[in-house]
Amino acid sequence: MQSKSTLAFEVSKMTKRYGEVVAVNDISFSVTRGELFGFLGPNGAGKTTTINILTGLARPDAGTIGIGGIDCTYNPKGAQHLVGVVPDESNLYAELTGFDNLCFCAALYGMRKNERQERARELLATFGLIDAAHRKFANYSKGMKRKLTFAAGIIHQPPILFLDEPTTGIDVASARKVRQIIAALHSKGTTVFLTTHYIEEAERLCERIAFIVSGRVIQIDYTADLLQPVKGRNILVLSISNSESGISDEIARAFPGYQVQSTNRGEVRVESTEQIIVGPLVRFLEERDIQMTEARRQVPSLEDVFVRVTGIEAGLMKKEKEKVRGEGNL
Amino acid sequence: MKRWIAFCNILVKDMRTYYLKPPNISWGIIFPVVWTGMFFIKSGSGLESILALLPGVMTISIIFGTTSVLSVTITFERRSRSFERLLLAPISLELLMLAKTSGAILFGVVNVFVPVIIAAFMANLSGIIWALVIPAIFLIAIVSTFFGLFIAVSVSEVFEAQTFSNFFRFPMIFLCGLFFPIMSLPVFIRPLSYILPITYGVDILHGAITGEHIMSLTLDFLAIGAFCVVLFMLSLSTIKRKWIS
After folding, report:
1. What is the ipTM of this complex?
2. Domain that holds residue A101
C-alpha cells in the first residue's frame, strides 16, 4: 500500500460511458511520483478516454480521481497546472510558427515573456527544430509536428506528463529521439503516463504496465514481473506456405511437449520450456505437403505476455491502429 | 497574474491570427458602406436621413463584425483539436471564453466607427448623446459576440456555423428596428422583435442619435445586459455538456 504523499495520481473505480458504449469500466490504478507507467491496449480499449478524464477533457460517470493530492473528480481544473499532455494527434495552430506556438502554449500556463521565449528556444534545440523555428506549423512534416506537439506538452515543465501514442506515425529517427526525451524526463523525476500500442516501446521504457482491453484493466504489474512467466521459454515461429486450418492441432498432437498456435499471418508459433528441435518439425510438415519458408527463434518478450493475457495478437493491434490513422489522414 | 497572462495572449493571438487579416478589415469597411449607400439611396430623402439610418448601419457593422469570424474560428479550432490546448490550460472556462470572445468584441467596436466617421462628413453629429452611444455600442458588441459564441458551441461543422449565423442575422436586420420601426411590423411578428437582444441595443442608439425610442432606456440596458449573461451562461453550459462530457 502506497502512502498518499508518494502518489502522483490515483484512479478509483472509474467508469465512463458514451451512450451504450462503456469506454472505461470500473478501473482502478495508481501511479507513484517519478514513475514511468505504461498503458497498453488495442484501439478502442479506453486509453485515450482515460487520459481525457485525467486531464480534464472529459468527466467520469462514476469513480474518483486524485492528482497530486487534489481531488479532481468534480474539479477537473484543479490539477491542470501540474499536468502536461501530448495528445495522439498534433493539435497546434497551423497559422503560427513553431516558435510562436511554443510561446503561446507557455503563456497559457502564465509564463512571462522572457521566460517563455527562453524555454521555447531551449525546446526547439532539444527537439532539433531550431532551423524550422520561424516556419509555420502547417508547413512542418509529420515527424516535426509530433516533436513540436511534444515540446508544447512539456513547455511548462509539468511534474506529471501524459503521453498518448507519442511515437505513432513518425519516422524511426524521430521516434528514437522522442523515446530518448521520455527517458531523460523520467530520469529527472517527471512522472510519465504513456499509452502506446508499440509493446516493445513500453517494454523498453516503462517500469510498470497496465493492460487495458474493452475498457477494463486486466493486469497491472512491474515490467520485470510481467515477463517472469515467459522467462526461460523457447519460441520458434514457422512461416508456412499453406497454413491449412488444424495444422497447429496436428503438430501439438505429434509433439506433446510443445504448445502450438496458428497466427493470422500464415505462421505457426511453437513454444516450449525445452529446446525446440527444428528438423522433426520440418519433416512433419513436408510429409503433409506443407512448405516451410522460414523458421526463426524468438526471445520471449512482453508481446508474448500481452498475447497470453489478453488473447489479442499484438501485430494485429499495431496494424489496426495504423489503419485507423491512415484513414484519419485521408 | 498568471491567468491574465493567458487571457491577454489568447486575445492577442486571435487578433493577429483571425481579426487583423486584410479580408476581415476590408469586409468590415465595405459591408457597412454598401448597406449605408443602399438604404440612403432607397430612402431618397437626402442627407437629412443620415442620422435616421446611422443606428441601423452601426448595428449591422457590429453584428457582422462580431459573429462572422468568431463562430467560424471556434468551430474550426474545435475541429482541428487546437481548442483542446485551451481547455487543458489551468484557467477557468469562464475566463477562457471571455478571452476567446474579447477579440470579436473589440473588432465589432472598431468596425462601428467606420459608418460613424463616414456619417461625420455628411451630417451634423453634434446632437448625439455619446454617453449613451458608447455603452450601447459595447453592449451590442458583447451581446452579438455571445450570440456568435452560442452558435459556435451549438454546431459541429464550420459550414453549419456560417449557415446558422445567417439564419439569425438576416432576419434580425428586419425584425430589430434597424431600418423599419418595430411598430410598423405586423402585430403577430412583433413578439419576435422583443425576444431578439439587438432590438434593445438599437432602441438605445435611436434614442441617443435621433431622440426616438419605443422603450425606456433603463429597460433597454437591463434587457440587453440580461441577454449577455444568459447567452454566455448558455454557451458555457453547452461547452461543458458537449465538449467536456
Report:
1. 0.88
2. 4-227
